[in-house]
Design goal:
- It contains 14 helices and 20 strands.
- It is α/β, with parallel strands linked by helices.
- The strands form 5 sheets. Strands 6-3-2-10-17 form a 5-stranded parallel beta sheet, with helices on both faces. Strands 18-16-11-19-20 form a 5-stranded mixed beta sheet, covered by helices on one side. It has a 4-stranded mixed beta sheet with strand order 1-9-8-7.
- The protein binds flavin-adenine dinucleotide (FAD) and succinic acid (SIN).
Length: 536
């Protein structure tokens, strides 16, 4: 296997990974250079599909303050948000936005060239910046990709998976093994700083707004390497995915449409949110999702509707060009017709336990963006806080890495050697498991048994089935192809989600147990590592 070395390796090219790569390259001393590894093409990521926007507390937005933003974040987080982290991230928001702008990101402005702020659920004021109307993620991601490509000496491996993180006997990071699935080629990349920016886990669920790269790889790899993972039971289900676009990934109808006044209705046009929460359509996401789920279950229908007919067509098209275009493809004119919507797995609050600068419990291993769990989101993320967290964690990571020696050594112990050997030899076991069908089966299982509404019986039976599949899946290290690596990782994360969900015998934020519908006031975040189990 080829052996090479870099001062820093960034795994993932969403907003977190790209922002970190650009800043690191610009500001840090990197004697051995920098490498970005990405599973698909550079631009493909959850980030690319973000619609609503990015929270920013700007001094010129006189109605807003960091105090208000922190309060909203903590309220949405249902008791598990770390207030110090919320404070830190909120206070950094204006600074990171300025930096993003310096890398070519253009947020939408009004006719007086002032930044426009919109609103989404559970925000007390308009504070969300957007770009390209409803194409915020694409505009940021695209600007960062262009900037990165203009920096000639950043090495990029596309269509390459990180498949194993290498830690030595002292649980210190030594590097990563990569697999290019087009060339069928493995490499050992040695590095004192490996940064996981691999995004979330949406593809673990049958219905999701996340693209097919989102299989929880980085979190599973970090867990295998001994890192602490946290809050693994908390998956955010977005209330309004476009119910007609059910092809693996569901198109999103942004919460910003409700922010602009759209209402949820049944097929006869009757509103129902007032029966669930006084904030109605702008209640926190978990509440709106469960309300829709309950309406759908009561009447046995597959979706409810979003009524945005109060917005004139020319205004809708200008403000939400992506949504307008997709609706039109399905012969829906949002200014005349109701938009069919249903909930879908969307965002992962859990992940690798980190500080705001990305440090994990494994020395030299970092995680930023959605793969990390800083404590900002608690049990339920406030809309548009994710891109902000991606930018702030990347920003702080770079500040941290600037202060340490990033020289590689070409020396490692027998632990690392053993791990490398597992990928150097041929696969000697052949699993009879049909990988593609098993992925489909696992996604249905997670949707039905560990989804929006959970109970012990369903979780127990999911755990048994996941363990059965894991026993049949014989590839502990080297796998035959990309899909098999993804299934290996999905099984690890699914099991952790279900175990954590079983352990949390209460309902809180996005985790709802119909057998324990109340919130238990002393319940805290749960954490786990392969090394030991903890509650902290
Ligand atoms: P991602 O953008 O998901 O990038 C992950 C990267 O890791 C990808 O490049 C992927 O290819 C790579 N990768 C994965 N596994 C591997 C592997 N094994 N090896 C190598 N590379 C790997 N948040 C907001 O704040 N505001 C919004 O308006 C908003 N809207 C959203 C709309 C949609 C439809 C979706 C899906 C999400 C939305 N979110 C929004 C959430 C937000 O987009 C994500 O949380 C955020 O972009 C995650 O960024 P990231 O850089 O952490 O990961
Ligand atoms: C949306 O636009 O509704 C998504 C916003 C988010 O996930 O933060």
């Amino acid at each position: 296997m080829e052996h090479t070395k870099y001062s820093a390796v960034i795994i993932g090219s969403g907003i977190a990974g790209l922002f970190a790569a650009i800043k690191l390259h610009k500001e840090a001393n990197l004697p051995d250079g920098i490498l970005v590894i990405t599973k698909s093409k550079l631009i493909e990521s959850n980030s690319k599909y973000a619609q609503g926007g990015m929270v920013c507390v700007m001094p010129e937005n006189k109605l807003d303050s960091t105090m208000l933003h922190i309060e909203d974040t903590i309220k949405a987080g249902a008791g598990l948000t770390d207030s110090k982290v919320a404070e830190f991230i909120s206070e950094k928001s204006a600074q990171v936005v300025k930096e993003l702008q310096s890398f070519g990101v253009d947020f939408d402005r009004d006719e007086n060239n002032k930044l426009k702020f919109t609103k989404e659920a559970a925000h007390s004021v308009n504070r969300i910046l957007h770009a390209g109307g409803d194409a915020t993620g694409f505009c940021i991601e695209n600007a960062l990709v262009e900037y990165l490509l203009s920096q000639k000496d950043i090495q990029i491996y596309e269509e390459t998976l990180a498949v194993e993180l290498l830690t030595d006997k002292n649980n210190v990071n030594r590097g990563v093994i990569t697999y290019n699935y087009i060339k069928d080629e493995y490499k050992f990349i040695e590095s004192p700083a490996v940064i996981i920016a691999t995004g979330g886990v949406g593809q673990l669920y049958k219905y999701t707004t996340n693209p097919d790269i989102t299989t929880g790889d980085g979190i599973a790899l970090a867990y295998r390497a001994g890192a602490i993972v946290k809050d693994m039971e908390f998956i955010q289900f977005h209330p309004t995915a476009f119910a007609l676009s059910d092809k693996g990934t569901m198109f999103l109808i942004s919460e910003a449409v409700r922010g602009e006044g759209a209402k949820l209705v049944d097929a006869s046009g009757n509103r129902f949110m007032h029966n669930y929460d006084e904030r109605e359509e702008l209640a926190p996401r978990d509440i709106v999702t469960r309300a829709i789920y309950s309406e759908m279950s009561k009447t046995g229908v597959k979706n409810v509707y979003l009524d945005a007919t109060h917005i004139p067509e020319n205004i809708f098209e200008k403000r939400f060009p992506t949504i307008y275009g997709t609706c039109k493809e399905y012969n829906i004119n949002p200014s005349k017709n109701y938009i069919p919507v249903s909930p879908s797995a969307h965002y992962y609050m859990g992940g690798i336990k980190t500080k705001v600068n990305g440090e994990t419990s494994v020395k030299g291993l970092y995680a930023i963006g959605e793969a990390s769990c800083t404590g900002l989101h608690g049990a339920n993320r406030l809309a548009s806080n994710s891109i902000l967290e991606c930018a702030v964690t990347a920003f702080e990571l770079v500040n941290h890495l600037k202060s340490i020696n990033l020289e590689s050594t070409y020396s490692y112990d027998s632990n690392v050697e053993k791990l490398i050997n597992n990928y150097d030899s041929d696969i000697n076991q052949d699993s009879s498991l049909d990988i593609e069908n098993t992925i489909i089966r696992l996604k249905s299982l997670m949707w039905n048994n560990a989804g929006i509404v959970r109970n012990k019986e369903n979780l127990d039976s999911a755990l048994k089935e996941i363990k059965d599949i894991s026993n049949e899946f014989l590839y502990k290290y080297k796998c035959p192809d990309r899909k098999a690596y993804e299934l290996r990782n999905m099984l690890i994360i699914s099991q952790l989600i279900v175990e954590f969900a079983l352990q949390r015998s209460e309902s809180r934020g996005a985790h709802y147990r119909e057998d324990y519908p109340q919130t238990d006031d002393i319940a805290l975040s749960n954490e786990k590592t392969i090394l030991k189990c903890m509650k902290g």
